[in-house]
Amino acid sequence: DTAVSQTPKYLVTQMGNDKSIKCEQNLGHDTMYWYKQDSKKFLKIMFSYNNKELIINETVPNRFSPKSPDKAHLNLHINSLELGDSAVYFCASSISGGSSTDTQYFGPGTRLTVL
Amino acid sequence: DAKTTQPPSMDCAEGRAANLPCNHSTISGNEYVYWYRQIHSQGPQYIIHGLKNNETNEMASLIITEDRKSSTLILPHATLRDTAVYYCIVRVLNNAGKSTFGDGTTLTVKP
């Protein structure tokens, strides 16, 4: 059973398009996250949701809009895709965002390539 | 969150212990030390965490110095599948689980 799953695994699209990446966790966790890993392999947090409520929003262009229909899902919608958006996007979840003893479980990643 | 410093790369012979150091000299009293690893093309994987006592689980051991300014992750019997980037992270209480991943250490286990 996959704990944190993401779809699609690969996404190739043209500049200017709008695309979505979906994430689901079956761990019963309260908090979900989106991270971006660029070509230099630096992993940077983008968003965090706790029980469907946005709690972290790093300096991310407003072309990126996360949506959490329920606490098991956190989707990422990207408008007007740019070349610089090419990266691997990781979803993660944890039991509670309010404790530093919680551990994060990551999905397999979605490799986005913008042409 | 406290900044961490790790060597960019290390090699280890298969079957030997891999000792990965991490410096976190500005760690606060309420910050935990976490270790994750990322095997090529996969998502990061949690390994172990601790506050001030040494910890051991089925994957690894974590040794934290008494002053908590540095720690060492020990993989007791490294295998080829342990080749990965290892991240040392320190996290503040009640920060919504925000983990700052640095550059990590690329561990290469060689036969």
Structure description:
The complex is a heterodimer of chains A (115) and B (111). Chain A is an all-beta fold and 115 residues long. Chain A has strands at residues 4-7, 10-13, 19-25, 31-37, 43-50, 53-57, 64-70, 73-78, 87-94, 105-106, 110-114. In chain A, a hairpin with a 2-residue loop joins β7 and β8. The mean pLDDT of chain A is 89. Chain B is an all-beta fold and 111 residues long. Helix content of chain B is 0%, strand content 45%. Chain B is globular and about 40 Å long. Chain B starts with 8 loop residues before the first strand and ends with a strand. At the A-B interface, β4, β5, β9 and β10 of A face β3, β4 and β8 of B.
Question: Would you kindly provide a brief summary of this structure?
Answer:
The complex is a heterodimer of chains A (115) and B (111). Chain A is mainly β and 115 residues long. Chain A contains no helices and eleven strands.
Q: How would you sum up the major sheet of chain A?
A: 7 strands, mixed
What would you call the structural class of chain A? Answer: mainly beta
H/E topology pattern of chain A? EEEEEEEEEEE
Quaternary organisation: heterodimer
Number of strands of chain B: 9
Poorly predicted segments of chain B: none
Beta-strand content of chain B: over 45%
Q: Determine the N-to-C terminus distance of chain A.
A: 34 Å
State the share of residues found in helices of chain B, binned by percent: under 10%
| Largest sheet entry of chain B | 5 strands, mixed
Global Rg of chain B? 13 Å
Average pLDDT score of chain A:
89
Percent helix range of chain A? under 10%
Distance between the termini of chain B: 37 Å
Kindly state the number of beta strands of chain A: 11
**Most extensive interface, residues per chain?**
A-B, 30 and 27 residues
